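Model it.
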Amino acid sequence: DNLNSDQQELIDKVLDASSHMIDLINEIINISKNVGESRLNLCEFELNTLITNIYNIFESIALSKGIKLILNNEISSEFILKSDKNKLFYILLNIIGNAIKFTSKGEVVFNCRMSNKNRVLFEIIDTGIGIDKTMQKEIFQSHIRTKEGSVYEGNGLGLAIANKNIITLGSELK
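Modeled.
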């Protein structure tokens, strides 16, 4: 009751992020239980809400590192997507999280738009360390890390799980 609007906004972001983290933990548990299975939990949801939640989670993290997180969202505010919301959330969380983790200066750009095939296109561009061409296919396997990436925290599972989810959703990671 005694919070100003900025404090209330931050608390709302933390509560929203924690709700998504619980969903992610449950998703990880389900992935662990169902290794090799590719089940979808389809539902209809407002894509812009998910995009905004992802942006809000990472905006302050990027600022604390001295980098910019830029959101270019061209998706209509009325657009309803039928997909596996938790898988999509995990994919974007992992890829944008990696972009921020491996970027020490500059920016991370998060582009969202409809492609010419009436599909949603997410594009994450960063000024980070990059992935050596020789590793670009291998990096999507479990526990594979680049030489440059091995100095950062992580276990080499995030991209493998994200890529598996992308394939399950009928798409691809380029």
